[in-house]
Design a protein that fits this description.
The complex is a heterodimer. Chain A has 17 helices and eight strands. Chain A is α/β, with parallel strands linked by helices. Chain A has three domains: 206 residues, NADH-ubiquinone oxidoreductase 51kDa subunit (Rossmann fold); 80 residues, Ubiquitin-like (UB roll) (Roll), CATH 3.10.20.600; 112 residues, Up-down Bundle (de novo design (two linked rop proteins)). The radius of gyration of chain A is 22 Å and the shape is globular. Chain B is α+β, with helices and mostly antiparallel strands. Chain B has two domains: 62 residues, Orthogonal Bundle (Arc Repressor Mutant, subunit A), CATH 1.10.10; 95 residues, 3-Layer(aba) Sandwich (Glutaredoxin), CATH 3.40.30.10. Chain B is 44% helix and 9% strand. Chain B contains eight helices and five strands. Classes of the chains: A alpha/beta, B alpha+beta. At the A-B interface, α5, α7, β3, β5 and β6 of A face α2, α5, α7 and α8 of B.
Chain lengths: 441, 218
């Protein structure tokens, strides 16, 4: 049995866990002082050596991302924290910032020092106002304590932090769309290259890192590279937050070494809800191909999940039991991608529209056998054909579910409707009344 | 613009504070649109003109940005923005049923406002609280683990003018305009208000303690 390793979450249960006092009493901001005594280049090397990989989904090595910045040309360079957590199923950064915002702020300061940034931004999704309150307060507290501002703790290093609220757009979680949005534009992805490291915010060298990645930096500085690399698997080092949601007895945030399995996590979380069995799940949010019971023992690290045909993503484990209609689930995800496609690239904009039409037809029992093939063909016309990965993500659950549960799609066609009682999936009791969804959609 | 002198002076002062946060002026646009909503309750034609003048943009450029983001409202919004998550996970856990019953109870559909101007209903996309499904948001505060009954009660209490506390967040839900001002980056003194972290947030910690993990000082 793998032991949980609360690091980021260690103080979440404390009284006023979000305050500067609580954070400092638990040892917070000591790593900052240690970091300010180090050479920036040594800090970058330490994060490289730790093997920390981006916790926002893509898993790109964080230290390497920092190292991609071109040499200092005297002009500004920026750190932008991606706090636009919006991938369906993903719910780890919000509790992190709500319960311990100073872990992020301290990470921002150390990271900025390492990369030579004097103005950092935290781009928070706009739909979480209490998290924004906590971040604004934490930044103000950090200024008052001398952790931010001019000549931080006599180091000669200056840093300002701006916490910026978005306004409702999933696409802004894509790093170049986020940068456009932060520049006051529509949040649409840019063609890469150039990558943000070369031409990011205001066309200046920029590092864009996820909340959890940045918040992990103080612990690495404090406890050392060896402590971090002792956790996890060969190429997936350290700990991460695993977010269990859905038909599970005790849903929530479980901080564990990478490589833990769903079987182990389920044991800690009290199992699938009583009287039911796991049917399908996402390892890393709705953009990752779905898994089944066959993957209960797949180590949840980047390589193993990839080898099994999916992606570790954001470790957003959405669990669905045997009452759940996979066609209903996939249709709803697809509607989400249609809604959130920014419209810039034709394959994604038009493709997600047509996928939704076909899926809704199948779900309502008006589909044909040919529609199932049409779904897969349309997915082929979308994947890999747009600036960003939104369209690719839209195809993941469709392709994987048709592969794993084709007979369920066929059942909708043959029976002329959904064979499942939707009320059986709900977490409260009600009797299902037909056709209300149409009336209100 | 039809703002009176006092309103315009306050707006200009706030806009200056927002613009000062960024190295490039245009970055102030998103918070300024939240600011406009804090005064007008939606992104009004006046508000668009105001942002354009402050940031040296055209009104068309400002509109093009405002229409991209779902939090910016193009018609006067209700005092309370009530969103029921109907993305897959919440929908399956009961969000669809909550939406159906709530929509019927209130008598309006998606992106519609009640006649009394109190409630604007919305079918929400994922709001990053999946471990608390099914989730409802009121003016962007968390209402976790909802049922049709609890959701209807919240809306009834809001319409009756009662103070309503979210399940995670401040002591009470503020108005749409008040919350919009926070989103423009102005603190409202409520950051220390708290309803507890919530069991799912602490579930891993509880399990770790059972495994023998001890809270150690760093």
């Amino acid at each position: 049995m793998t032991d949980l390793v609360p690091v980021l979450s260690a103080t979440w249960g404390a009284e006023q866990s979000w305050s500067l006092d609580t954070y400092t009493e638990a040892g917070g901001y000591a790593p900052l002082k240690k970091a300010l005594g180090m050479e920036p280049g040594d800090l970058i090397q330490a994060v490289k050596d730790s093997g920390l990989r981006g916790r926002g989904g893509a898993g790109f090595p964080t230290g390497m991302k920092w190292g991609f910045l071109p040499p200092d040309d005297g002009g500004p360079r920026y750190l932008v924290v991606n706090a636009d957590e919006s991938e369906p199923g993903t719910c780890k950064d919000i509790p992190t910032m709500m319960s311990a915002p100073h872990a992020l702020i301290e990470g921002v300061i150390i990271t900025s020092y390492a990369i030579g940034c004097n103005h950092a931004f935290i781009y928070l999704r706009g739909e979480v106002v209490h998290v924004y309150r906590r971040l604004l307060q934490a930044v103000r507290e950090a200024y008052e304590a001398g952790h931010l501002g001019k000549d931080i703790h006599g180091s000669g290093f200056d840093l300002d932090v701006t916490v910026h609220a978005g306004a409702g757009a999933y696409i802004c979680g894509e790093e170049t769309a986020l940068l456009d949005s932060l520049e006051g534009r529509r949040g649409q992805p840019r063609l890469k290259p150039p990558f943000p490291a070369v031409a990011g915010l205001y066309a200046r060298p920029t590092v864009v890192n996820n909340v959890e990645s940045v918040a992990s930096v103080p612990a690495i500085v404090d406890k050392g590279v060896e402590w971090f690399t002792a956790m996890g698997t060969e190429r997936s080092k350290g700990m991460g937050l695993f977010s269990l949601s859905g038909h599970v007895t005790r849903p929530g945030q479980y901080e564990a070494p990478l490589g833990i399995t769903l079987r182990e996590l389920l044991e800690l979380a009290g199992g699938i809800r009583e009287g039911h069995e796991l049917k399908f799940w996402t390892p890393g949010g709705s953009s990752t191909p779905i898994f089944t019971q066959d993957h209960l023992d797949t180590p949840l690290d980047y390589e193993s999940v990839g080898a099994a045909g999916s992606m570790l993503g954001t470790r957003a484990l959405q669990l669905f039991d045997d009452t759940t209609c996979v066609v209903r689930a996939v249709t709803r995800w697809t509607e989400f991608y249609k809604h959130e496609s920014c419209g810039k690239c034709t394959p994604c904009r038009e493709g997600t529209y047509w996928l939704t039409q076909i899926l809704k037809r199948i779900e309502a029992g008006r589909g044909t056998e040919a529609d199932i093939q049409q779904l897969l063909d349309t997915c082929d016309s979308i994947a890999g054909r747009s600036f960003c990965a939104l369209g690719d993500g839209a195809t993941s659950s469709i392709i994987s579910s048709v592969k794993l549960f084709r007979e369920e799609y066929e059942a909708h066609v043959e029976q002329g409707g959904c064979p499942f009682d939707h009320s059986a999936s709900a977490l409260f009791d009600y009797s299902d009344t037909p056709a209300t969804e149409e009336a209100h959609a | 613009m039809t703002y009176d002198e006092t309103t315009l002076a306050q707006l200009a002062e706030d806009a200056a504070a927002i613009i000062a946060r960024y190295p490039v002026k245009r970055s102030a646009l998103l918070p300024m649109l939240h600011l406009v909503q804090s005064v007008d309750g939606f992104v009004s034609p006046d508000g668009i003109q105001f942002c354009a003048e402050q940031l040296e943009l055209t009104a068309a450029e400002v509109s093009a940005v405002a229409t991209f983001y779902t939090q910016y409202k193009r018609r006067p919004n209700g005092e309370y923005q009530v969103g029921v998550c109907t993305n897959t996970l919440c929908a399956v856990m009961g969000g669809d049923r909550i939406w159906d019953e709530l929509s019927e109870h209130v008598g309006v559909g998606h992106d519609e406002t009640t006649e009394d101007g109190q409630i604007t209903l919305e079918r929400l996309e994922c709001n990053a609280a999946c471990d608390y499904a099914p989730v409802m948001m009121v003016n962007w505060e968390f209402f976790d683990n909802q049922t049709p009954e609890s959701a209807k009660q919240v809306v009834d209490d809001l319409r009756a003018g009662k103070d309503v506390a979210p399940t995670r967040g401040p002591a009470k839900v503020c108005s749409f305009k008040q919350v919009s001002r926070v989103l423009a980056g102005f603190e409202d003194g409520r950051a220390d208000e708290d309803q507890g972290a919530g069991a799912p947030t602490l579930a891993g910690l509880a399990a770790a303690k059972e495994q023998g993990w001890k809270e150690a000082a760093k």
